[in-house]
Amino acid sequence: MLNIAFVTETHPPEVNGVAMTVGRLVGGLRQRGHRVDVVRPRQAGDGDGSSDDMLVGGLPLPGYPALRFGLPAGAQLRRRWREERPDLVHVVTEGPLGWSAVAAARKLGIPVTSGFHTNFDHYSVHYGMGWMRPAVAAYLRMLHRRTRATMVPTEALAAELAGAGIPGVRVVGRGVDTALFSPVRRDPVLRANWGADEAAPVCLYVGRLAPEKNLPLAEKCFAAIQVWEPAARMVWVGDGPAMARLKVEHPDHHFAGVRVGEDLARHYASADLFIFPSLSETYGNVVAEAMASGVPVVAYRSAAAAELVVDRRNGVLASPGDEKAFVASALWALEDAGHLNGMRHAAAESMLRRNWPAVISRFESVAWEAIG
């Protein structure tokens, strides 16, 4: 049995890919009998003192006010880990809390691993701070070089980080809950609420409505689809700073807000094509969730899509940055019912082996390697 301290800036019930991944890893490790102590910033619902996690101070993340980055907590962590020494410290996020955790663990001689979940250096460009990108990238490299292993979701990201001089990169991957995300959750009543009958194609986007997600291409793609099929519908699931603009410019689109659990699964399965134009992802859990729901994806050949989508078999792909090819791929997917129906079945089938227990096993292997 392992005793692991997980240090993370984001954690359920916050809604984002990293929080979901942390929840799955922590829950899976505990189910296997490991002790996992979570260290995280205090959230809005933590006022009753019922949480068993170690809570530290935090501040809102710029551009993501609903999320908080943890303040440095080196002294607190050293005291806690002297009293009960973990076998391993795993740092999920690279904020001030994560940096202080790496320093505290190294000072105490505790093995440290890390996860690379977010391209923060890429994000800086979309928030008017592109001039900071080299400094942010250097900061990330420095933190991960101070850990014994950096766990990543894809082979491509592993190669990129290794090429940047980060040692000990290990591919752990991501899973998808195929019991939750499934074609059986397709709901004609929900489609009717969107103004779509079974013959009208419904296009879906799920994720943060923010500049780094390249949303103008999703808008352009759906506009082209609507010229071909005026009855088509566009559904947006999520929230973020781009929401207000999107609602003003597209009053005919449906904005569902944040959805979770079975409600989210119904939204996925009730769509026909998932439009995912982002180029800033390290993975993109939503791609796997859409495919598990039997919804083909149109995406750039990067991150999760590059590993999960076989072009024109279970989705459609375009070369990164080629907007014309992206739109053309979406139109090809919808122009023939045979294309779409074949890809629906293949998408769901291809996700059945992408299970979380296999990911937990790979995490365990890297943890034991770091300790040994």
Essential attributes:
single chain; 372 residues; alpha/beta; Rossmann fold; 7-stranded parallel β-sheet; 15 helices
How would the blueprint of this fold be written?
Elements: E1 3-7, H1 17-31, E2 35-41, E3 54-56, E4 58-61, E5 64-70, H2 74-83, E6 88-91, H3 96-108, E7 112-115, H4 120-126, H5 133-145, E8 149-152, H6 155-163, E9 169-171, H7 188-193, E10 202-206, H8 215-228, E11 233-237, H9 243-249, E12 254-257, H10 261-269, E13 273-276, H11 285-292, E14 297-300, H12 303-308, E15 315-318, H13 323-335, H14 337-350, H15 356-371
Parallel strand pairs: 1-2, 1-6, 2-3, 6-7, 7-8, 8-9, 10-11, 10-13, 11-12, 13-14, 14-15
Antiparallel strand pairs: 4-5
Helix pairs in contact: 1-15, 2-3, 4-5, 8-13
Envelope shape: elongated
> What is the name of the CATH topology of the largest domain?
Rossmann fold
Helix and strand run: EHEEEEHEHEHHEHEHEHEHEHEHEHEHHH
Tally the structural domains.
2
CATH homologous superfamily grouping of the largest domain: Glycogen Phosphorylase B
Low-confidence segments, given as residue ranges, are 119-133
Mean pLDDT: 91
How is the biggest beta sheet arranged?
7 strands, parallel
Q: If helices are DSSP runs of H or I spanning 4 or more residues, what is the number of helices? A: 15
Determine the strand fraction and express it as a percent band. Answer: 15-25%
Q: What is the number of beta strands?
A: 15
Q: How much helical structure, as a percent, in the residues? A: 40-55%
The assigned CATH architecture of the largest domain is 3-Layer(aba) Sandwich
Enumerate the strands of the largest sheet in spatial order, edge to edge or round the barrel: 3-2-1-6-7-8-9
- Highest CATH level, the class of the largest domain: Alpha Beta
**Which value, in Å, is the CA radius of gyration?**
21 Å
What structural category characterises the helix and strand content? alpha/beta
Q: How far from one another are the termini?
A: 14 Å
